[in-house]
């Protein structure tokens, strides 16, 4: 026979777990699609609604028959804690698969880092960081990102020019600065995340973006992108997984129209 104190402890734990579960479930709005986003992460998200993640949010809102509202906060330290976990919003449209800060949905696209050059540059055919043509050339990169490690291993560290990873993009624009310097010739090339560089390069006839899908050493260059929800919100995650699966073609169309390089699931080449 179970001892009274043990029974009461188990009952108390069950009540607490139930309350915690209810508390998580109660945070989500059922009258709005509340999105957590950076107000100046162009071309991904923007307070003026022009980013491709804004377009995906609008698309999802239409499918859910819900109006889209935003909580704006610069991405970086504290972003998830002060937006999603604070209960101010219910979804982050773009989040790397496997991050423990959120509960990830199934991925809805895969993309890669790549190299940006002028179309008329001698480096225009480069598609590997170990290419000897890159030696002794000034190349821009975001410090702390995976390609910075690969570049150092390829002997390119001496001439790398780094920009900070976490900045308030309302006042700093590292990607824009790098692309401007590639155009002017101050940089021979820049190595950037595809969803950031691809749309900006698409709008510039002098530049090109080449995905780094042939790297064989160092950190991988491709990543699967999911949507992020609060830990414990499994039913919301399942609802979004179903929504993504049923509307993948529409999401792909938005990404392609924006100029995002979409890869196959294994990062070996562009998705057909």
Automatic annotation (TrEMBL):
Keyword Manganese: no
Domain of life: Bacteria
Domain Solute-binding protein family 3/N-terminal: 32-258
Alphabetical list of InterPro entries matching this protein: Quinoprotein_dehydrogenase, Solute-binding_3/MltF_N
SMART domains the record matches: PBPb
NCBIfam families listed in its UniProt record: ABC_peri_MoxJ_2 (TIGR03871)
Name of the protein in its database record: Quinoprotein dehydrogenase-associated putative ABC transporter substrate-binding protein
């Amino acid at each position: 026979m179970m001892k009274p104190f043990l029974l009461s402890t188990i009952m108390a734990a069950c009540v607490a777990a139930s309350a915690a579960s209810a508390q998580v479930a109660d945070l989500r709005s059922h009258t709005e699609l509340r999105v957590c986003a950076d107000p100046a992460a162009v071309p991904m998200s923007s307070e003026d609604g022009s980013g491709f993640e804004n377009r995906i949010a609008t698309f999802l809102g239409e499918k859910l028959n819900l109006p889209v509202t935003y909580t704006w906060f610069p991405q970086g330290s504290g972003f998830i804690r002060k937006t999603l976990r604070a209960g101010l919003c219910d979804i982050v449209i773009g989040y790397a698969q496997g991050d423990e800060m959120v509960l990830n949905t199934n991925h809805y696209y895969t993309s890669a880092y790549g190299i940006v050059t002028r179309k008329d540059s001698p480096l225009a055919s480069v598609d590997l960081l170990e290419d000897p043509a890159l030696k002794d050339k000034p190349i821009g990169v975001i410090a702390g990102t995976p390609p910075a490690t690969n570049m150092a291993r390829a002997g390119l560290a001496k001439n790398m020019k780094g920009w900070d990873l976490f900045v308030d993009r309302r006042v700093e624009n590292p990607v824009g600065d790098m692309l401007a310097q590639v155009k002017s010739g101050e940089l021979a090339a820049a190595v950037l995340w595809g969803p950031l560089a691809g749309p900006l390069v698409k709008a510039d006839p002098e530049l090109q973006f080449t995905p780094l899908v042939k790297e064989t050493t160092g950190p991988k260059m491709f990543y699967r992108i999911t949507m992020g929800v609060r830990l414990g919100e499994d039913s919301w995650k399942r609802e979004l997984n179903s929504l993504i699966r049923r509307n993948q073609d529409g999401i792909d169309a938005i990404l392609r129209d924006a100029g995002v390089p979409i890869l196959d699931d294994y990062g070996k080449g562009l998705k057909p």
